[in-house]
Design brief:
The chain is α+β, with helices and mostly antiparallel strands. The protein has seven helices and six strands, in the order αββββααββαααα. Strands 1-2 form a two-stranded antiparallel sheet. The protein has a two-stranded antiparallel sheet with strand order 3-4.
Length: 196
């Protein structure tokens, strides 16, 4: 099981790596925010409430990828733009989460932060995954890197997500917390970088 001292080292490493990456990624992030603003006709930086460490809520930052258009029939279109699809498929839409890491709300490695109704309602041993900060990447993220495509093929995506994918993610993330090592974090960061 991950210890308090390991959590401290994990935080120091996150901050160290984030501050190294900030000067390199700041300009690309600003350019992409401007591009997404033009592309979606809304502010290009999107924020949403997610469940964090100890089930505390925080605002996650992402690049805006969905358009919001009212059609003649009064329907609301929230599909991804062409640029948005590219950003989502390459995970570049998650670059602003570097600021979540700097603020101490996220880690580079950990369970992905979900909307309310998932991690915050876990019970018993499953709540172990709330010991660590949610991550930009992690073992479950790598396994389900094509999650959107998998869900598109399901007759009932919400049921499949809650009863198949989410259950498996909890198992994977519990294993991560129970068998944590700094080496594992490095391994997941390298794997994620190679998978871009």
């Amino acid at each position: 099981m991950i210890t308090r001292s390991q959590l401290r080292v994990k935080r120091y490493f996150d901050l160290f790596l984030a501050l190294i990456l900030l000067p390199i990624l700041l300009l690309p992030i600003v350019i992409l925010i401007i591009a997404c603003t033009i592309d979606t006709k809304m502010w290009g930086l999107f924020k949403q409430k997610r469940v964090g460490q100890s089930a505390k809520l925080f605002n996650i930052y992402k690049l805006r990828t969905l358009k919001k258009e009212h059609h003649q029939l009064g329907e609301l279109d929230r599909s991804a733009t062409r640029l948005g699809k590219f950003l989502r498929s390459t995970k570049l839409d998650e670059l602003p989460q570097l600021f979540n890491v700097i603020k101490g709300e996220m880690s580079f490695v950990g369970p992905r932060p979900d909307v309310q109704g998932f991690a915050d309602v876990l019970e018993g041993e499953d709540r172990k995954i709330l010991i660590v900060k949610p991550g930009i990447t992690g073992p479950a993220t790598l396994k389900y890197k094509d999650e959107e495509r998998v869900l598109e093929r399901q007759k009932d995506p919400d049921h499949y997500n809650r009863n198949i994918i989410w259950v498996d993610k909890v198992k994977i993330n519990k294993n991560y917390v129970e068998n944590y090592s700094f080496y594992l974090d490095l391994k997941f960061i390298i794997k994620s970088t190679l998978n871009l």
